[in-house]
Amino acid sequence: MDNKERQLKQQRIALAVQDVEPTETEAWTDLALLSSNTRVDTVETFEREVRIDGEQFSGPITWYVVLEYGPRDGDDALTTSESFPGTFEGHFEGETPIVDRMTVDTSSFYA
User: Fold this and answer.
1) SS3 of the chain: helix, strand, coil, percent, to 5
2) Which residue has the higher pLDDT, 5 or 75?
3) Residue 45 pairs with which residues in a beta bridge?
4) 13, exposed or middle or buried, with CB in 10 Å at 0-12, 13-18, 19+?
5) Residue ranges of domains in the chain
6) Are 82 and 67 in contact (CB under 8 A)?
7) Rounded to an integer, what is the distance from CA 106 to the centroid of its chain?
């Protein structure tokens, strides 16, 4: 695969990662435990760091989340933002990238 083809595949993979619903990933269990109301603001991908091995691919991501504590509409609610590293893995079906797993490492939150 030449460099141009690799870059196009990496771009398609990054878009596929962005399109995954966070609550449908295995990372969501860990993220949801962080606050009474956790929201994913964005998931950052790093196209140049996407590894492609035949029909398989993987790479690093960063989860940016909003954490809310206390009643959602109350004056006592506390809102903060955090970021956590993670990874994704997937495969190609034809030319279409399919994301199989997205994980997160929240250990820094508890340190």
Assistant:
1) 30, 45, 25
2) 5
3) 61
4) buried
5) 3-104
6) yes
7) 12
Q: Are 104 and 28 in contact (CB under 8 A)?
A: no
Residue pLDDT, tens place only, 35-65: 999 999 999 999 999 999 999 999 999 999 9
Give Cβ neighbours of residue 67 (< 8 Å, ≥ 6 apart). Answer: 34, 35, 37, 38, 79, 80, 81, 82
Q: 3-104 architecture in CATH?
A: Roll (3.10)
| 14 and 91 Cβ atoms separated by less than 8 Å | no
User: Could you report the per-residue pLDDT of 23-37, keeping only the tens digit for each?
Assistant: 999 999 999 999 999
pTM: 0.91
Q: 31 — alpha (psi -120 to 50), left (phi > 0) or beta?
A: alpha
Give the single-character DSSP code of 79: E
pLDDT value of position 77: 81
